[in-house]
């Protein structure tokens, strides 16, 4: 039970730290005077570092069987580069590009590594949804308090907050012995041939591509929709509210999933997440006031939690035990990293070429495509299994 409580404390602190960076990027860049195209490039910058960090760290976690060690290294680096990003309060594009690329990539990697840390332990894995709920609570708290502290101009304060939370994370991590988790990880050596075999697994590739399509829209919800909110005269007042609503909606969703997820197929969780994204972005398209956009944010209860749990478990199911970290982080690095690069650029390009609503329509299409691809892949796999059975 102590192990679970320490993980809950880590998730609470981790998501407060992550929100300190991720929820304030767009308001901060807007405050500095960057236009939508420049913000698109800045937001896309950490897609490349996300891919590199997640693949490299995932491989090292499996090879060295030291998840905690690399998690701590990622947190320290994240705190340093995030703090520097907010300390530079002058508009210096290339400096912000480099710092955000490093901070954003490490932020995404830290979230994936801590998920893998929990999944690596059998007892903690059974409480995964409940632990994630605590993280969402931390994100929600941070989303409410940080805008009040920053007040739209004092962004340098975030550097001190992020550094303080990073120290707390280091303390909590020190309370978990590496052996508490490492003994659950397969001890076999891994090779490049094992990784090549994994990426040639048709199910693994199909699932990763489906998650990529979905994540394009999830990223747009946190970038493009923020741009639409900021297009309203008093929209900046609602940015924190949107983040908070989304986070607090995830809390009951994760707790419910912790109880009922074993009764529902992982594929069904993905289908429901796609449906919710389709409806949510449909509302965003027709929204004539910022309040309607905020109300649509309540659909977060059906989007990210279902996607997060369903995607992790689907990849876990088709990944060999000795490649647990590599399989998870390699998949995440692709769908999260590539989507994080393409989504802001695509939304910025379409918004400038036509209108924000035209970009919203574009991102409505991706969840529909994801459903089609997943259904096709599932039917194909079922036919193969039936053929083997015969």
From TrEMBL:
Keyword Transmembrane helix carried by entry: yes
Keyword terms of this UniProt record: Cell inner membrane, Cell membrane, Membrane, Transmembrane, Transmembrane helix, Transport
Keyword Cell inner membrane: yes
Domain Major facilitator superfamily associated: 9-352
Transmembrane segments: 12-34, 40-57, 69-88, 94-118, 130-149, 155-172, 204-226, 238-257, 269-286, 292-309, 329-350, 356-374
Subcellular location: Cell inner membrane
Matching InterPro entries: MFS_assoc_dom, MFS_trans_sf
Membrane topology of the entry: Multi-pass membrane protein
Cellular component annotations (GO), alphabetically ordered: plasma membrane
Name of the molecule in the record: Na+/melibiose symporter
Organism expressing this protein natively: Trichococcus collinsii
């Amino acid at each position: 039970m102590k192990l679970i409580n320490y993980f809950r404390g880590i998730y609470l602190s981790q998501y407060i730290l992550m929100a300190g960076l991720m929820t304030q990027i767009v308001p901060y860049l807007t405050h500095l005077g960057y236009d939508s195209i420049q913000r698109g490039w800045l937001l896309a910058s950490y897609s490349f570092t996300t891919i590199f960090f997640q693949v490299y760290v995932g491989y090292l976690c499996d090879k060295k069987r030291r998840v905690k060690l690399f998690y701590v290294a990622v947190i320290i680096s994240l705190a340093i580069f995030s703090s520097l990003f907010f300390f530079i309060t002058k508009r210096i594009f290339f400096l912000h590009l480099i710092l955000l690329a490093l901070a954003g990539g490490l932020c995404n990697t830290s979230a994936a590594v801590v998920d893998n840390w929990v999944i690596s332990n059998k007892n903690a894995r059974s409480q995964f949804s409940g632990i994630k709920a605590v993280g969402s609570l931390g994100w929600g708290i941070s989303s409410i308090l940080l805008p009040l502290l920053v007040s739209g101009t004092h962004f340098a304060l975030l550097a001190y907050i992020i550094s303080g939370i990073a120290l707390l994370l280091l303390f909590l991590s020190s309370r978990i012995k590496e052996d508490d988790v490492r003994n659950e990880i397969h001890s076999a050596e891994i090779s490049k041939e094992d990784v090549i075999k994994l990426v040639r697994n048709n199910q693994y590739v199909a699932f990763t591509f489906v998650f990529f399509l979905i994540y394009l829209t999830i990223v747009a919800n946190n970038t493009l929709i923020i741009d639409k909110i900021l297009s309203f005269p008093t929209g900046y007042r609602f940015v924190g509210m949107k983040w908070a609503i989304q986070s607090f909606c995830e809390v009951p969703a994760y707790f419910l999933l912790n109880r009922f997820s074993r009764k529902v197929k992982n594929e069904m969780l993905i289908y429901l997440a796609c449906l919710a994204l389709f409806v949510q972005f449909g509302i965003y398209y027709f929204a004539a006031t910022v309040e309607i956009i905020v109300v649509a944010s309540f659909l977060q209860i059906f989007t990210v939690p279902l996607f997060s749990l369903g995607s992790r478990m689907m990849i876990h199911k088709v990944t060999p035990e000795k490649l647990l970290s590599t399989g998870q982080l390699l998949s995440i690095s692709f769908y999260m990293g590539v989507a994080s690069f393409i989504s802001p650029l695509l939304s910025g390009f379409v918004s400038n070429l036509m209108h924000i609503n035209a970009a919203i329509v574009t991102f409505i299409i991706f969840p529909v495509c994801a459903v089609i691809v997943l259904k096709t892949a599932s039917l194909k796999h079922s036919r193969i299994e039936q053929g083997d059975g015969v």
